[in-house]
Amino acid sequence: MNSALHTAPSHLAKPLLLRAGLFVTLWWILAEGSFLAWGVGLASVVLAVVVSLILLPPAPSRISPLAVASFLGFFLLQSFSGGVQVARMALRPSPDLHPVVLDISLRLPEGGARLFLAATLNLLPGTLSAGLQGGHLRIHVLDQRFPVEAEVRAVETRIARLLGLPLEAA
Asked: How confident is the model at residue 1, as a pLDDT?
């Protein structure tokens, strides 16, 4: 049987502790820091850990804490500079926008990485992912004069680095 519950205990300790910590923190937030509901909370945490180990068995991770920190720093910088750019456009006396919907070929492998790219671009100011079809991302941008494809490539490269994935030729 290839179940997480039948994994060797030494391989299970770290994922078990990380998930337990995550669920305890989540319960503490939901209980607003009150210790009155910890009887139910403890049972919920144990059940959540067991179910999470069954549904998402521990596997070797290619994501390093350094890669996560690097991606978060990049994302925050892009969010700030994009926010400033959009604010400038909005505050002009006569906005000079050239909105467009672009289809950009993707280099990330199919699956979760592409969805993560589309979701990340949605969170960056001035862009909206409108769809994924085949190897292309349809994206709405506020101004076609900005180097949107280069920005998408930069985010794509950062996601590939974060997830330890190779990029395909465009």
From this structure: 47
